[in-house]
Amino acid sequence: MQRFLRPFVWRNLTIRTKSVLLSISLMMLTGLMMLASLWALDSIRRQVDNTVALTIEMRSLVQAIQLETESLQSLQSRLLDEYRQPDIDPLITSLPSNYADINDSLETHADQLIGLSARLPESSAQETLKAQVAAIKSKSDTARESFFNTVTLVQQLSDPETGTITQFTQSGEQLRTATAKLNDTALNNQVITMHTLETVVVQSNAAEDYAIFQQAVARYQALYESKIPEERRRDEAELLQTYRDNAATIVSQIEQIDNVGNITQNALSDLRDEASRLDNVVEDRVGSPLEIMATTLNRQRIILFVVMIIAVAGGWIIATLFGRDISQNVWELLDTAQRISTGNLQARAHIEGEDELSQLGESFNAMAAQLEGLITGLEQRVAERTRELSITGDIGRAVVTLRDPRDLMNEIVELIRHRFGFYHAQIFLVDNQRENAVLAASTGSAGRELMARKHALPVGSQSVIGQVTSRGEPVIASDTDSSAVHKRNELLPDTRSEMALPMRVGDEVIGALDLQSVAPNAFDQDDIAVFQIMADQLAMALENARLYGELQDAQGSVEMLERRITAEAWNSYRQSHDVDAPLAYEFGGERVEPYSRQSPTPMSQAVQDGQMVALDDGDDGISLAVPIKVRGEVIGAFGFGGETVRRLTGDDLALVEAVIDRVGLALENLRLMEQTSRRAEHEQIINAITAKIVGTTDVNQILQTTVKELGRVLRAPQTSVQLRRETLDDSYE
């Protein structure tokens, strides 16, 4: 019994039901007049609702027909604009299917409009609307037939396998191949000119361009007939005729497409005009019932105004009785909303009953739960991005730490695959010829196999890597089963989505970072933003490693050159030095004396190895030998002996090396000063001799002066000079 009576409890009644009860109470106060007024109001409301609904629906259908007409015209314009583009494939373009869908939708809306016309109060309005809709359908059928005729012509022209353009290109290629075999420069130049004009003929379809092409073909034919004997002519003439026929066919087909396209455009223009007339017809035929309804509604509004004044007084008393219940529920909802706004996402409204406010409370609680889940998900997303930035930092540290490019790339791909949980990660680098992207680092056993194969993909090929290295932009294959750019690899059979990002140094693409996942649609624009930073870091690190290697090589070359120059200079210095002057000295505790014996073994070893030599017991008592270095080249050595030498500390040895380095620097400065002095002396002698012979105009005087001065400078006991003389028999002596 309680279950049966529960829906009739006041708090379980809907607000509509409570309002009806309130209206009944008011009608009891106002009597039959109130009942009659409410009945009249309800009747007019239904009529107004039906009329307004009919008006809105019919106008919506008319607007839909107008929009679909504009869409059909847009598709026709796109077809005429795109069919000459070199990359269009008429077999896979979506224009015909889109046109068919929109045209079917237009006819469906037209049929719906005819169905709604039966609800119009006037039969004349129905007939006028039906006639206008029939005209629209007729124009639509005409435009559709013309459009698909255009599509057929485009397929005949642009089909990648059998289209006229394909045949034209193939015949041109065959002609160029055959001409190349003739080894005639003029014919090859002319066939190159014809090849240049191929695109012009297809793209422009202008009469003057086609005439220029025909003139080029005629010049080729004239050259061919003049240069190639008839007995040597093979298939070139037939290929030339096929080439010329294909060009003429292309021009004819493009002209047909343009003509049929113009017919379609005219039909679509007529269809748009008919749609505009339809809008005017609907506007005229639907407007009059609304005016009648508006007049009736105004009259009844006055009657109801009087009735409502009578009902308000009694209604206020009755409304107060249940207004408290409604206000309590509203305050509960408001309090819950305020708690949620302060950050308490777990706050919920507790409203008893089954009326609309109770349902609103349930919806509010559901919204709060959804908001809590959304914020929680957002926090998780922020945590994921934080993790990605942390991984990016790890990669940055690896970039800074590792110098070897191979170790760096292997470390990066393993780090990305492990931390992000990808199926596969790899790096491609573009070769010096910028023809192929060569695999430089890859993960797992599949990566080792690919590295062993020296796997590479051509730049610009129909693959993710080929497109990235060619365009320099990120490429995503969301689903490898349907992607046109994914190139399947038998070693990676589980790949379902792939993303590749360019590795750029300035404006130059040096490679690509490739990531693969076993889940479709695994990559989005946010992933591009994160991983592009990694790719740019890696590219810059590789470039820095390359520059560092070049710098090291250059530095090593400079050091070797300095050492070689220094060694040659000191060899020359020792050879030019007085052989009797000693270049070795020893200190015996009292004075410094020349050292003429053979160098002790420790000193010879120090000179040979360029390193300090310390022995317990050496030749001549020398137990410590330190080389003298100038710019890395060893020019001599110091030898030390005695008991105190064996007790030298590390600081003492460092002091000895520092002093010997200063000795080497002083010796090098002295050698340079002597070399500079000798050069200055030579210049002085040359200037002196030149000054004595410059003012002399007699050849004999010049020769005598020169012989005298050179003999004096060189201290030669005999110096002579002789000019070559011509004898009587034209010989020289």
Describe this entry's structure for a reader:
- The protein has 733 residues and is an alpha+beta fold.
- Among the domains are: 402-551, GAF domain (Beta-Lactamase), CATH 3.30.450; 600-686, GAF domain (Beta-Lactamase, 2-Layer Sandwich), CATH 3.30.450.
- 68% of the residues lie in helices and 9% in strands.
- The protein has 18 helices and eleven strands.
- The chain has helices at residues 2-5, 15-30, 32-82, 95-117, 123-158, 164-182, 185-204, 207-227, 236-341, 356-401, 405-420, 444-453, 464-471, 525-576, 601-609, 643-646, 650-694, 699-714; strands at 424-430, 436-442, 456-458, 475-477, 497-505, 508-517, 585-587, 592-594, 613-614, 622-630, 633-641.
- The strands form three sheets. Strands 3-2-1-6-5-4 form a six-stranded antiparallel β-sheet, sandwiched between helices.
- Strand 1 and strand 2 (436-442) form a beta hairpin.
- Helix 8 (207-227) packs antiparallel against helix 9 (236-341) and helix 10 (356-401) packs parallel to helix 14 (525-576).
- The protein is flat and about 155 Å long.
- The model has no long low-confidence stretch (mean pLDDT 76).
Class derived from helix and strand content: alpha+beta
Percentage of residues in helical conformation: 55-70%
Ranges where pLDDT stays below 50 over 5 or more residues in a row are none
CATH architecture classification name of the domain at 402-551:
2-Layer Sandwich
By CATH reckoning, the class of the domain at 402-551 would read Alpha Beta
Topology as H/E string? HHHHHHHHHHHEEHEHEEEHEEHEEEHHH
What is the average of the pLDDT values? 76
Q: Alpha-carbon distance between the termini?
A: 153 Å
Let me know the number of strands.
11
The CATH superfamily label of the domain at 402-551 reads GAF domain
Please report the number of helical segments. 18
Task: Give, in spatial order, the strands making up the sheet with the most strands.
Answer: 3-2-1-6-5-4
Largest sheet: 6 strands, antiparallel
| Strand proportion | 5-15%
Radius of gyration: 50 Å
What best-fitting shape do the alpha-carbon axes yield? flat
CATH fold descriptor of the domain at 402-551? Beta-Lactamase
